[in-house]
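[Discussion] Sanity-checking designs against the backbone

I'm trying to build intuition for which residues belong where. Below is a structure token string of 268 positions. I'd appreciate it if someone posts a full sequence so I can compare it with mine line by line.
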């Protein structure tokens, strides 16, 4: 019986792979080809999707993954694609994964492509421009999740689910930090967290963009918190703090491996 179920899952994922590949036109440039890689690891599957976040292939992918007979067998998902968007935004809409009773109990890793300095579009998670708590609702369906990479900061509900086994967490703010650093500092949900990456709000084309960045006091709160005590490596992308302020924070955690990354891009 178990072998039959696994064969059925494998067959459906192979059919999905072929359907996604088959929807590419003969003249589609290589950089815009939709594709899905499916790798079987024991009785679970790792999926790597490359394609248009607004396209039929992505909708088809979510439709299959949200089936109750498929979802429990997914071990990891990678979502990435070309720099395509609307009004300067590429949004990965994950709501279809939450529209059914399907649970992703075997999922250990979810990685959604984050922004690169050369990207024209801001990549986020959301139906439109807001995250709307979707990451917290997805976390509720992935009790075994150990690695998470997302281009939007999660809302407060992400921290209200009780203990979770996350060990690696990489978050970009997207269009709203949603007080991520402060919420994490007050959280007791991630006692196994070892590596944290955070990309500060970086809409530098807005005149007062710093008003939407994380207050320095929130970072002090995090560095002194029990929630951060387990973290051994912190990658900080595009902080608006001075070098002296960063050094003072680092002195609170001398044992911490800390990497600061600053990137910028502008049209001329």
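Best answer:
Here's mine. Compare freely.
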């Amino acid at each position: 019986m178990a072998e039959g179920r696994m064969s059925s899952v494998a067959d459906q994922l192979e059919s999905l792979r072929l359907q996604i590949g088959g929807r590419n036109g003969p003249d589609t440039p290589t950089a815009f080809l939709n594709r899905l890689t499916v790798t079987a690891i024991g009785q679970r599957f790792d999926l790597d999707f490359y394609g248009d976040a607004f396209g039929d292939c992505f909708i088809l992918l979510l439709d299959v993954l949200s089936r109750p007979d498929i979802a429990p067998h997914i071990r990891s998902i990678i979502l990435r694609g070309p720099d395509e968007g609307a009004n300067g935004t590429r949004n990965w809409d994950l709501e279809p994964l939450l529209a059914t009773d399907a649970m992703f109990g075997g999922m250990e890793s979810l990685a959604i492509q984050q922004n690169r300095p050369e990207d024209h579009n801001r990549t986020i998670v959301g139906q439109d421009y807001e995250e709307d708590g979707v990451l917290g609702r997805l976390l509720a369906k992935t009790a075994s999740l150990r690695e998470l990479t997302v281009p939007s900061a999660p809302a407060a509900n992400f921290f209200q689910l009780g203990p979770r086994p996350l060990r690696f967490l990489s978050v970009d703010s997207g269009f709203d930090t949603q007080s991520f650093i402060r919420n994490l500092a007050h959280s007791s949900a991630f006692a196994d967290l070892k590596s944290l990456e955070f990309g500060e709000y970086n809409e530098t084309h807005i005149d007062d963009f710093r008003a939407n960045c994380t207050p320095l006091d929130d970072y002090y709160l995090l560095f002194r918190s029990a929630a951060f005590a387990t973290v051994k490596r912190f990658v900080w992308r595009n902080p608006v703090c001075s070098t002296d302020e960063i050094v003072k924070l680092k002195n609170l955690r001398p044992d911490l491996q800390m990497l600061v990354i600053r990137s910028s891009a502008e049209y001329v």
